[in-house]
Amino acid sequence: MKVLATSIPERRDSARVALITGAGRRIGLAIARELHAAGWNLLLHYRSGDEALGLQAELNAARAGSTQSFQGDLGDAALPAALAAAAITHFGRLDALINNASSFYPTALDTLSHSQFDDLIASNLRGPLFLAQACARLMGEGSAIVNLLDIHARKPMPGYVAYCAAKAALWSVTEGLAVELAPRIRVNGIAPGRMIWGGGDNLDEAQRSAEQARIPMQRLGGGDEVAHAVRFLLSADAAYLNGAILPVDGGLRLA
Known about the structure:
By secondary structure, the protein is α/β, with parallel strands linked by helices. The protein has one domain: Rossmann fold. Helix content is 40%, strand content 15%. The chain is built from 7 helices and 7 strands, in the order E-H-E-H-E-H-E-H-E-H-E-H-H-E. It has helices at residues 26-37, 51-62, 79-91, 114-136, 161-181, 205-213, 223-234; strands at 17-20, 41-46, 67-71, 96-99, 143-148, 185-192, 245-248. Strands 3-2-1-4-5-6-7 form a 7-stranded parallel beta sheet, sandwiched between helices. Strand 5, helix 5 (161-181) and strand 6 form a beta-alpha-beta unit. It is globular and about 50 Å long. The N and C termini lie far apart (49 Å). 44% of the residues are buried.
């Protein structure tokens, strides 16, 4: 696999370019549509399924040549460099990395396996960290990284010890990179609460109703709330925000 040299490329196009992991569905899909509508060109990462390919076709129909997709598993050590190189190959520049992809499922301590732990670490910590490393080598002045965290990184959920540990570590990585990469690259995080129900929630309807009632705003957030926050953190309005973790949780962290 050929990987470009670790030097900042000459920018060929005035449109900014963002790499979004897990871009084919749910929150990643909302982020992609939000940034594309704001004029960004996009490299859409996905692990499986064809949702990202459909999104690529949709966005390119709206603005020709604005979107490419790239399939890969964040557990693959070669993926970060390949993704960063793909952005340069397709667009000639890379201005933002949004680490959105995440495995999420319960892992009770007495049944937690090594393979489950490795999977949760790969998507929620190792992949984002090494993507930041690969992308930072190719990003220019004024670029930005946004990591999708979770309020439960600081308020752990029973039965999700491995997931919460991985997100807590990514929280620390976000703050560490904000110091190490400044002033050329800003690094911030978004900590959602209960947003879109996912397959890993493992809750029945009564439990979901009780969980929703705990949220001070009395409703789940949607992908759009996170997407708006991502767009803000990438904008000039957030030019002095670095190492910030923005909660998008309807106040759930306070409940």
